[in-house]
Amino acid sequence: MRKKDVQRAQIKEKREEYRNQGLRVGFTSGVFDLLHRGHIDYLQAAKRECDILIVAVNSDDSVRALKGDSRPIQSETDRCAIIQALEVVDHAFIFEEKNNNLNITELSPDIYLKAGDYGRAQLTSAPLVEEYGGQVKCVPFVSGRSSSSIIEKIIHNYLPQLASSEPDMLPDAAPAAFLDRDGTLCKHVQYLSDPEQFELLPGVIPGLLRLKEAGFRLVIITNQPGIGFGYFTKEDFYRVNLEMLRQLSDAGILIDKIYFSPYTKAEQRPCRKPGTLLGERAIAELNIVRESSIMFGDSEADIQFAKNLGCTSCLISEEYSGEQLPDIQAKTLEDGVNLFLQK
Questions:
Q1: What is the pLDDT of residues 139-174, one digit of tens each?
Q2: CA distance 239 to 236
Q3: Which of 78-84's residues contact partners 24+ apart within 8 Å by CB, and which partners?
Q4: 3-state helix, strand, coil in the chain (%, to 5)
C-alpha cells in the first residue's frame, strides 16, 4: 500500500496484515502545522517504539476549534502530505474527531504515543488502549520548539507596524484586580465545560463589588489547558463564561475583560501563567496602573504571575504548601479584598 492518499478504513484493513506478520504498530496524532525540528525529533522517537508508525493529522475544522480561527496556517491536505513524505512515517491520514477514541478503536495500535508531559488521567483514549492489552507512552516535548512559537516570531520580526488615523482612546489610568477563574471566582470543576456546573464561590460577589467601588478594573486571566488537551472547545469555554457574566451582571458586576491561555503546561507558552504576556497586554489595552494592582488566585502560578508582573498577590486558599509565598492569604475573595484595601 502506498503511503499517500490513504484513509483510516484502508489502514484498518492493513492493520490485520501487520498483526499476522508480527509487526508492532504504533499510533500518534497531531496538528503539524509548521513542520519543525521538534516534530521530527518526536516522530523519530515514536518510530523507535514500533515497526509501523501511523500518524493521524487533525482536520482544519478540529484545529480551528482547538486553536482559533487564525489556525491552521497550512491546509489539512498539505499538512498530511508533508507527514506522509517523512521516511519514519508509514501511514498518515486526516481525522475530524476532537479526540483519538475512534482512531484507537478502529486501528487497535500496539502502542499509543503522545507528545508532551501528560499524565495517564489526562489521556482519554488510554483506557481504550489498555483494555485490549496495548501500551500507552508519552514522549516529552523539546523545550522551545512549536509551530505557535515560530508563528509568533514571524509576526514579531516581520509584521509591519500599521499606523491608525484615529487611535483608540485609552480609559483613564486605574489599578486592576487580576482574577483567576476556576477555584477563585467559581468552584473548581476539573476541565469545566458545562455552564450548568458553574457555581460562584462564597464571598465573590461582595468582594468584586468592593473592588469596583474602590475604582479597580476587573480583569480575568485564566489558564485553560483543557482546550489544548482537546477535552473541550473554545466554544464550551465561552458558554461557561457567558453563564458567569450573567450571574455577575445580575449582582451589578461588570467584568472589564477576560484573557485566557488555551495551551498546556508542556507547551511552555508565555501567555500561560505564571508567564505575564496576558497581564502585559491587559496593562497596555486597559491603561492599568501596575504597581497599584493585585492578582487574586488559588495556585502558585498565580502568585508567581503577580511577582513577575510587579503587583501584589493574594492567595484564596486555606491550605497551601508551595514555595512562593503570597503577599496576602485569605479564605474567600471577600476576605482577601478587605485585607488588601486595609493596607
A1: 877 666 777 777 767 765 654 443 344 445 567 899
A2: 5
A3: 79/31, 79/32, 79/33, 81/4, 82/32, 82/35, 83/32, 83/35, 83/55, 83/57, 84/3, 84/4
A4: 40, 20, 40
> Looking at domain 176-342, does it have CATH number 3.40.50.1000?
yes
Instruction: Give span(s): CATH 3.40.50.1000, the chain.
Output: 176-342
Task: Report the 10 Å Cβ neighbour count for 31.
Answer: 22
Please give the average per-residue pLDDT across 285-292, as a whole number: 95
User: Where along the chain do the CATH 3.40.50.620 domains lie?
Assistant: 8-142
The number of C-alpha atoms within 13 Å of 187 and in the hemisphere containing its C-beta is 9
| Helix-helix angle 60-67:234-250, to 10 degrees | 30
Residue 131, C-alpha cell as written in the block: 483494555
DSSP structure class, residue 60: H
Per-residue pLDDT of 52-69, as tens digits, reads 999 999 999 998 887 777
Mean pLDDT of the chain: 89
Which CATH number applies to 8-142?
Answer: 3.40.50.620
pTM, 2 dp: 0.56
